[in-house]
Q: What sequence folds into this?
């Protein structure tokens, strides 16, 4: 099966997803987060770095669950227009600060 090249929008969403997951993970280790989510640390590293811009839904759902992020918050954050502040940023920051 031939995979079509990613659009600039998909690449940007992947970058935002990675940044959101890194912020939500905070001081928690990548290894612990990946293992708790049932994914490999390499997969999590690639998602967080934006190298996997369109990860599988079950993968994102599992990681989000481990980090305490709702899928609605994840989608809202990664699909917002450039320059618009996201609600998921505040939620992740509040959880990390408490």
A:
């Amino acid at each position: 099966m031939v995979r079509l090249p990613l659009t600039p929008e998909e690449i940007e969403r992947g970058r935002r997803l990675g940044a959101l997951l890194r912020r939500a993970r905070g001081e928690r280790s990548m290894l612990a987060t990946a293992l708790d989510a049932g994914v490999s640390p390499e997969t999590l590293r690639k998602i967080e770095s934006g190298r996997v811009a369109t990860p599988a839904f079950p993968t994102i759902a599992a990681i989000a669950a481990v980090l305490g992020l709702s899928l609605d918050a994840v989608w809202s954050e990664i699909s917002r227009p450039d320059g618009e502040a996201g609600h998921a940023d505040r939620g992740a920051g509040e959880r990390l600060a408490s």
